[in-house]
């Protein structure tokens, strides 16, 4: 089948939707009534008390947290980030897949239909060999009718095989298909799995404070500005900002630190450089860098992990009315890191200070304390209240906790459609939705 110009143009937008470089959270207001609550007692499995898992907390992941490459196998990230560490292909099918994907992206950028057909052929060959990520890509091609006759049944089949092989994009596709058909018993299981992985990815790095919607170049003039802003250290705007920072501008130092810390504006994440710029900004009295230094030392990002220093920096930040720093301090008291000993009472005080100052993380962490009975009498309904407050401020992990409550019927009445919708909101923020 020859690829028509219309289909080729359509594919460029298909890739835009499949691989956005940053995802924005949609506005969402959750309102529950008394009828949604349940008095059902939690099971013994749910009643784990203080043995909360790391992913329950909205702070610093352990050093053995999985990398994004492990959370999102088969990602196209190495194609868009030339400096990414891409391991040598383990099989010929894997090599064929990445070759095909690379050609596909090049074809979209250059407007070459023949190269697109060659790319699709390589992807189909890898899929025939049983490589799940190639099966996923082929499923999308059949679903969109690009280089292949549009065929929903074949698209579903390839996504089914790919999902069984661990491909997250295909799991998202299947979950969406099931939810559209009101098959919530199947959709909720897939979205729950995806949401859990997404939550674990939040531990690798907090959400970027900068929203950067960037589209892949399709030859259109309006995309050149977006591409220019993705040139990293070669970008003229970045070089001007760097010059200002070198001249002692504290705000410029902080911004450059942010760019390196989160890997923004075409820069590769570099925690060592981020640490350096945040340290220089702090020396100039820039307060927001204090909290980020606290996170860096707590996570051991670009520096040896040091909880004592982390607590000191977070405390300094809180004195500058950066109320989100109270969450980090509370977390350290819950864990007993960088402080004399565990102190749940002290932790609760810090979480309350954060919550009183409209900090969503404070409400979320109080919800975890009441859900698990950590330092307080377990109160699932009160936990639900705090999670709703946090969710309505956009805290994604609060949506995850509420989804679990609707899914299991603990604290909230069993409601699979609601659980599916909330899991979906979290799953859409997973590493498969970001290449930055």
From TrEMBL:
SUPFAM superfamilies: HCP-like. It comes from the Eukaryota. One of its GO terms (biological process) is ERAD pathway. It is found in: Endoplasmic reticulum membrane. Residues 40-55 have a biased composition (Low complexity). Gene3D superfamilies: Tetratricopeptide repeat domain. Pfam families: Sel1. SMART domains: SEL1 (SM00671). Residues 40-87 are annotated as: Disordered. One of its GO terms (cellular component) is endoplasmic reticulum membrane. Belongs to the sel-1 family. PANTHER family: ERAD-ASSOCIATED E3 UBIQUITIN-PROTEIN LIGASE COMPONENT HRD3A-RELATED. This is ERAD-associated E3 ubiquitin-protein ligase component HRD3A. It comes from Camellia sinensis.
């Amino acid at each position: 089948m020859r690829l028509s110009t219309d289909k080729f143009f359509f594919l460029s937008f298909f890739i835009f939707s499949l691989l956005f470089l940053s995802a924005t959270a949609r506005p969402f207001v959750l309102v529950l009534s008394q009828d949604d609550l349940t008095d059902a007692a939690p099971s013994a499995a749910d009643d784990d008390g203080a043995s909360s898992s790391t992913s329950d907390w909205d702070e610093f992941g352990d050093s053995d947290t999985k990398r994004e490459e492990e959370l999102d196998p088969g990602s196209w990230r190495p194609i868009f980030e030339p400096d990414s560490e891409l391991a040598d292909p383990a099989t010929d099918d894997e090599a064929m897949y990445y070759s095909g994907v690379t050609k596909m992206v090049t074809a979209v950028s250059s407007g070459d239909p023949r190269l697109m057909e060659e790319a699709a052929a390589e992807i189909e060959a890898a899929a025939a060999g049983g490589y799940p990520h190639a099966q996923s890509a082929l499923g999308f091609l059949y679903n969109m009718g690009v280089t292949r006759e549009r065929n929903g049944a074949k698209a579903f089949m390839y996504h089914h095989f790919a999902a069984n092989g661990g491909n997250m994009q295909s799991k998202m596709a299947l979950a969406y298909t099931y939810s559209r058909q009101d098959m919530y018993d199947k959709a909720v299981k897939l979205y729950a799995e995806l949401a859990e992985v997404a939550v674990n990815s939040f531990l690798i790095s907090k959400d970027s404070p900068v929203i950067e919607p960037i589209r892949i170049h399709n030859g259109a003039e309006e995309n050149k500005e977006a591409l220019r802003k993705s040139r990293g250290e070669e970008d003229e705007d970045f070089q001007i900002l760097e010059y200002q920072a070198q001249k002692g501008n504290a705000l410029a130092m902080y911004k450059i630190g942010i760019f390196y810390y989160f890997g923004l504006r075409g820069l590769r994440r570099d925690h060592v450089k981020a640490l350096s710029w945040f340290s220089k900004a702090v020396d100039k009295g820039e307060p927001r860098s204090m909290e980020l230094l606290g996170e860096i030392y707590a996570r051991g990002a670009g520096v040896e992990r040091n909880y004592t220093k982390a607590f000191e920096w977070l405390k300094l930040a809180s004195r500058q009315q950066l109320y989100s720093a109270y969450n980090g301090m509370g977390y350290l008291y819950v864990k007993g890191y960088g402080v004399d000993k565990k102190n749940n009472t002290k932790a609760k005080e810090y979480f309350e200070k954060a919550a009183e100052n409209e900090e969503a993380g404070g409400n979320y962490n109080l919800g975890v304390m009441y859900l698990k009975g950590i330092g307080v009498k377990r109160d699932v309904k009160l936990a639900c209240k705090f999670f709703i407050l946090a969710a309505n401020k956009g805290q994604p992990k609060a949506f995850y906790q509420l989804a679990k409550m609707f899914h299991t019927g603990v604290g909230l009445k069993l409601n699979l459609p609601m659980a599916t919708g909330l899991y979906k909101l979290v799953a859409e923020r997973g590493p498969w939705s970001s290449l930055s």
